[in-house]
Design a protein that fits this description.
seven-stranded mixed beta sheet, alpha/beta, about 325 residues, globular, 9 helices, Rossmann fold
Amino acid sequence: MSIIELFSGCGGLAKGMSLAGFHELALVEFNEDACHSLRANFDPSIVWEGDVRSFDYSKYKNVDAIVGGPPCQPFSLGGKAKAHNDARDMFPEAARAIGEVKPKAFLFENVKGLLRPSFKSYFKYIILRLTYPEFQKKETETWQEHARRLSNIDFDSHRGTKYRVSYRLVNAADYGVPQIRERVIIVGFRSDCPNTWKWPAKTNEKGNWKTLGEAIQSVPTPVRRPPSKLWDNILREGARTYPGHTGSPIDQPAKTIKAGAHGVPGGENMISFPDGSVRYMSVREAKLIQTFPDDYIIHGTWSEAMRQIGNAVPVRLAKIMGDALFSALGECNCQ
């Protein structure tokens, strides 16, 4: 089954979807370093580096699904939370892609902040845009005017392309990821496809969450000059605690690894040991916490690599959601 992935980052979602059996037709990403990472782990010919607003979908036919993680900064609890006033809000581009390609299904991931009460009206608008993706916003319209126009459409009588959309807040730790990471998953199926989507059951409850220590137990303590086979297990010095940045206890799931709007927030990307000491995670350790394969290559400096990892969908969570999507699409007989 084929997919186009938007806002691919360094490829966490793409890797999980690949492991679930999907064939990537295109990986669309703006960041240069992230594109280097994608080319190192996937067929370089499918990596499209540039602004998604310039991407041409006309050559892609009969695509099974569009997936992606639209930039989360407009809705992040740790960011400026400007939503539709933030130029990085790419949900309109997600809707454009769906409207032009008309895939059987789509799956998008975003931060928990998308569900905060102050965004309630705009989130409802996002769902409406994804439900009726052909009804693009006019240049003269405000998003509120567009929302009213969309809300007046009757789903049952509408003859154009339309999608049944559902969403759920999930915690990656409930699916075997050694990290507390709450994310909104939005799934839609074209109305002519059977309604066979089932949300995956949790694989790990709170009592048996995997810990940070379990995730990195195979990795030696980082050093300044690691051997070549552990090239990304470099020690970064200077870790310290301060209010709000106390590190992730090694005997618990890691706190959410974050990219940060103003550089990497060191507290979330430090390991806290029982003796009170802390140190920064190496890139290799952060990869494993995000459930990337051990041999997955992330390009860039420590800060840039951690930014990519912090923006990624955990590979294990992506595979579990991908398995469910693959199964549901397998029961479709729509064209």
